[in-house]
Amino acid sequence: MDAILIQILNGLDKGSAYALIALGLTLIFGTLGVVNFAHGALFMVGAFCAVTLQRLLNISSVSIDETKKDFLGNPLKVETPYVENWFGDTVGSAIIDWSVPLAILFAIPIMLLIGYVMERGLIRHFYKRPHADQILVTFGLAIVLQEIVKAMYGANPIPTPAPDAFVGSLDFGVLVGLDPDSVIYPYWRLIYFLFSAVVIAAVFSFLRFTTFGMVVRAGMADRETVGLLGIDIDKRFTLMFGVAAAVAGLAGVMYAPINSPNYHMGMDFLVLSFVVVVVGGMGSLPGAVIAGFMLGILESFASMNEVKSIIPGIDQIIIYLVAIIILLTRPRGLMGRKGVMEE
After folding, report:
1. What's this model's pTM, rounded to 2 decimal places?
2. Mind listing the pLDDT tens digit for each residue in 111-160?
3. Are 327 and 272 in contact (CB under 8 A)?
């Protein structure tokens, strides 16, 4: 029971990232009909927003501290972050410590702007082009973004710690009635799952309960009819591209303490996220979320030593095997709509 619970938690952790990225992919495909292979790069850019804010907050002024001497008796130079000079040691240190959560506020306008520029500057010219052209141009854009980040930050992973309050692990077993110390799980991974659930709920609530969202859903179902009603659906779809970019960016921000950001992390998640979208059903938002968590849990169980001893390497191919089985039995995926990418 302990091992099963740990694997479920691991699966929810992985599935959270898959679901958030796949949700953004499906938003773009469902509204604009564009297969966006640059979406993984947006996840990576979000992670580097957290890195950037952390570096900005650690910019320091240098002063001479006469009370501290080196071994020759010379006064030492002391670096003090500007935020500590401005807000005091206690508040300034807290701001630096909470740089990752604060990066959410930093990343949202940046990701919205990047999404808007991508859609207006490039993607809009490929709406009526074949999906193969869309894949090629967005994949090229992903490589460009990846190389820009590599040139600016280097090729090595950059550690981005979580706040001190969330360093360590929770005795999760006690919460569910198991023996103490039977299921120990990192705080931040639990925070990431809860954060993902909040973002997913916010996106669905926005689409379901706001006038803007209802118009977008209507446009996804019948774009021409909505346009005939005098609604500028193209403008709304452009804003949804920015929202999808922001969702991917926020997923990357909060993932930074789990996996130190590096320039190729977007590509690592991209292929798996597209598999999630296809399994869930092209254009289906609930399908993308359900498939993300389902495949995350299956991948987690497949990574158990007991399973790998029976079928070596199963953890590397389990997602693709499940995708093959589902698509053979349900060609449109779990919740795919009729007519999507069937022309």
Report:
1. 0.87
2. 999 999 988 888 888 877 887 888 889 889 999 999 999 999 998 999 99
3. no
Alpha helices (H) in the chain, listed in sequence order: 2-32, 39-57, 82-87, 89-97, 99-121, 131-153, 172-175, 187-209, 211-221, 223-228, 233-255, 265-280, 285-302, 305-310, 314-329
Cβ-contact 282, 336 below 8 angstroms: yes
Residue 18 within a domain: yes
Instruction: Tell me the CATH number at 142.
Output: 1.10.3470
Nearest CA-CA partner of 57 in 100, 88, 99, 90: 99
Q: Per-residue pLDDT tens for 63-78? A: 776 667 766 677 777 7
Q: What is the number of structural domains in the chain?
A: 1
Under DSSP, is residue 84 helix (H, G, I), strand (E, B) or coil?
A: helix
Q: What end-to-end distance do the CA atoms of the chain give, in Å?
A: 47
For residues 62 and 65, give the distance between their C-alpha atoms in angstroms, rounded to a whole number. Answer: 10
* Domain of residue 255, residue span: 2-57+98-329
Whole-number Å distance between alpha carbons of 240 and 118: 12
